[in-house]
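Service request form, structural biology core

Requester: graduate student, group of Dr. S.
Request type: structure prediction, single chain
Budget code: on file
Notes: please return the result as C-alpha cells.

Sequence provided:
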Amino acid sequence: GRFSFTFPAGKTLVISCIGYADFEAVYSKSVSGLSVLLRQDAEILEDAVVVGYGVQQRESVVGAISQVSNDALMNAGTVNVTQALAGKLSGVETHQTSGQPGSNDAVITIRGVSSWNGNEPLVMVDGIEREFSDLDPNEIETISVLKDASATAVFGAKGANGVIIVTTKSGKEGAPKFRVSMEYGMQVPTEIPEWIDSYNTALYANIAKKNIGMYSDQFSYAQMEQYRSPSSAINSIRYPNNNWYDMVLRDFASTTNANFNISGGHGPVKYFVSFGYMHEGSIVKQLHEFGNTAYAYDRINYRSNLEVDVTKTTRMSLKFGGNIGIQQYPTGTGSMSTTSVFTSLYTASPLMYPAYFPEWFLEEVPDEGAPGDLSFRTSGPLSGEYPAYYKNPYQALSQGAFEQKTTSKIAADLLLKQKLDFITKGLSFDAKVSLTSSFYRYSLQSTQQRHVYRFHWDMYDLGEYAWEGAENTSGTIYVQPPYSATIDNTARSQKYVFYWETAMNYKRKFGSHALTALVLFHQREQVSEAGFPHREQGLVARATYDYNKKYLLELNMGYTGSEQFAPAYRFGFFPSAAFGYTLSKEKFWKENLPWWNKFKIRYSDGLVGSDASSSNWLYYASFHKDEDRYVEDKAANYEARWETAHKRDLGFEMGWLDDKISLEVDLFDEHRKDILIAPVVTAFVGIDYKDVNRGAVKKHGVEIELKHKNNVGRDWFYELGAKLSLNENRITEYEDLPYAADYQKYAGT
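Core staff response, request fulfilled:
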C-alpha cells in the first residue's frame, strides 16, 4: 500500500513479519517507490505461538506453553497423531491402552492427574472443541499445549486439565505447491513372553506339585517323553506342543500413509487442499479364509481450507474437513471375544489340547457322525477338563464371525474477520460459526461360526467312537464356503455439535509499548442420539502489555456457564495473571554476557474450573415408574458447584550462543478443591445422592527441557534434545467412610 515516513539518515530500517526473515537496509538519502519482498524463514516461524483464541510472539509469551510443528509430527514414525506426541512436549504424558487398529489412540494427560472425574485435556481444532486423533498429520500446521492458569483460564470450565490446540494448514501467497508423500512403517510389539514348550511345562508342573506335597496327578515319564518327542503322527495331536504366539501373532504390523496436497495463493485468495489415505494392520494373523475376519483399520481424510479477502479490510475463511474410517475385527465365539484374545494367549498351556485337527487326522480317525467330512476343525477342551478361562486362541480367530464398523466425521467452519481501523487503528471484529457431526454404523457383519470339536482319547483307546461336536452360541454353523455377511446401514451413534463465537480484538504498538486486548463470547450445543441437548456458554477477556519485550504482563478471565448446576451456582469466574521479565534485554546483560543471549523469568497464578461429574443436571431430581409405584432416582444436589483448580507456575527460559543451546525449566503447583464425588449415605436413608463437592487434591512438579540445534552448512542442520517431567499428586480430602482404618482411606494417599 501507500506509506511515507521519515527517519535520520544513516539509521537502519528494519521491516519484520512473523514467519519471515527481517529486511534491513541503511539509507543516506530520500527514497521513493520502495518495494520490499520478505522471504519465509522456518526458524522465525517458530516465533508464532498459538494460544487460546489467538497467536502471540514467543518473546511476549508469559504462560507455560509448548508447541510442536508439522515436521516433528511427520518424523514421529506413526500414523496416529496422539501417538506422535509421545516425547515431543514437556509435561505431556501419553500411553496406549490398546494396540487394536482403529482403537489405539493414546490417552493424554498434562502434568499428571488431578481428579477422579477425568484428566483428559480439552482439545481445540481450529478453535473448536473436537477430537484430533483421526486427523491426517499432513493437515496439521502446529500443536500447542497450554499448561498453566494464564494460558488456560480463558477456557473457564474446560481448562482445568490443560488444553491442546491443533491448527490446520492454510494457504500462503505464491504459486501452487504440490506435495505427494507415501510412508510405510512397521509396528513391533514391545515384548512377547518367551515360549516354554510342553515338555518343560510338564516338568515345572511336576516340580510345583511336589513342592506342595501333591504326589498324585503328575505327568508320567512316558507322557513327558511323548511331549518331548511324539512317537507317531497321532501322538503329535494327542500330546500337542502348541506355540500359541507363533500360530497367532506376526513379528510386526504394517502401516501405510499416503497424502496429496496443494497449497498456494494469488491476490485475494489463498487455499490448502489435502487428500489422505491410511491403512493400519495388526500383529494378529488372519486365520480364516474369509478376508474380513482380519484386524484392520482404513481411513480416508479430506480437507479444504480457503481464505478470501473480500475487501481490503474483510476476510472470509471456510474450513471444511472430515474423514471416513473403516474398522474391522473378528468377534469370536461364545465368551471368547476380541478383548480376551491376548488373555487366552497368556493363560493357554502349550499341552492342553491341539489348536485344530488337520485333514490327515480325520483320514486316520474318521468321524462316523459326518462321513467323508475332512474339513478344517478347531479344537476345544472336554467338559470340566480345564478351567473356564483356558481358551483356545486359535479357535476364536478361525471363525467366520466379524464386524466392520464405518465411522464418518465432518467439520465445517465459517469465519469472518473485519478490520475496524476507521474507528481506531488495530481494532478488529471476528465471528465464527461451526458445525461438527459424527456417526458410525456396522456396515458389514457376520455371525457365522464353525463347530468346535472335542476328541475323547480314552474312548479312542477302547476303539470306540470318540468325536464330539459342541454346538456354538449362535446356532448358525457352516463348514464349507460360501461365507456370507449382512449389510446394516442403521446408524448406531450420532452426534452433532453447533458452535458460534464473536470477538473484538485490539492490537497496537506505541513505540516500545505493545498492547493487545480481546473480548469474546461463545456458545456450544451438543446433541447425542435423541437425548437432551447439552449447552455451554462463556465470556472470555484477555489483555497483554509488553515494554520492548522486556517487561511483560498478561491478564485473563473466563466466565463460563454450565447446565450441571442450579442457577445460583451456574456461572463460574476464573481469572489469572502472569508476569514476565526478560533480563537479557537489559543493557548491562548484553555488554557483560553477550554469549548468554536469553534469560527470561515468568510467573503465572490463576484459577481454572471443571464441571465433570458422574451425573447430568446435579440440581435436578427425576423419577421413574416401577410397576405400580413411582421411585425417585438419585436425589438432587441444589448446592453443587464448580470444581476449582488454583494453579501457579514459575518458569525460566535460557539460551546461549544465539539459542544454539537452550534450557527451559518450569516449577508448578496446583491445589484443586470442591471435586465432585459420590457421597457416603447410610442405607437407612433409602436413596442415593448425586455427587457432592467433597474432594481435594494437591499436585506439584518440575519440567526440564534441554535442546541443542545447529546448522551445518547451508542445507543441513541437526537437533538434540532431552525432556524430564516429574510430578506428584496427593489426595487431601475424600468422601471416606466414617471411622474407617487409615489403610482403607484415600485421603492422604
